[in-house]
Amino acid sequence: MSAEGQGRDVLITQSATLGIRRNDWKYIEPIPEGGAIPTFIEQNKNIESDSSRRSELYDLSLDPGEQNNVVDQFLELAAELQDEIDRIRTSEE
Questions:
Q1: What are the φ/ψ torsions at residue 11 (nearest 5 degrees)?
Q2: Which of 24, 25, 34, 67 keeps 20 to 30 A from 74, CA to CA?
Q3: What is residue 2's DSSP assignment?
Q4: Domains of the chain
């Protein structure tokens, strides 16, 4: 937090792909087709590998356990958050 008590506007997370948290929303980009799914996802995290091929979006205020992927109900928000990840990724290169 800053001296003024302000936190970050967004938080980027990294696992097999990048994710972004903005306010109560958490978006996780999919693993690209042809990309390998890391074994830690399938073995250690108990995540179905096909779900990692899809974008994921969670409203953490209603679903803190990230059980209900609402990406299909909020496609515009998901696209906006993916664009933000792409912008940040490009600015780092």
A1: -130, 125
A2: 34
A3: -
A4: 10-86 (3.30.1120.10)
Give kind and range of the element (H or E) at residue 89. helix 75-92
Task: State how far the Cα of 78 lies from the Cα of 93, in Å rounded to an integer.
Answer: 23
> What pLDDT is stored for residue 69 in this prediction?
94
Q: What is the pLDDT of residue 74?
A: 98
Say how many residues make up the chain.
93
Q: What is the per-residue pLDDT across 21-34, written as a single tens digit (0 to 9) for each? A: 999 999 999 887 77
Q: Give the angle 73-75-51 at the CA atoms, nearest 5°.
A: 80
Contact 52, 27 (CB under 8 A): no
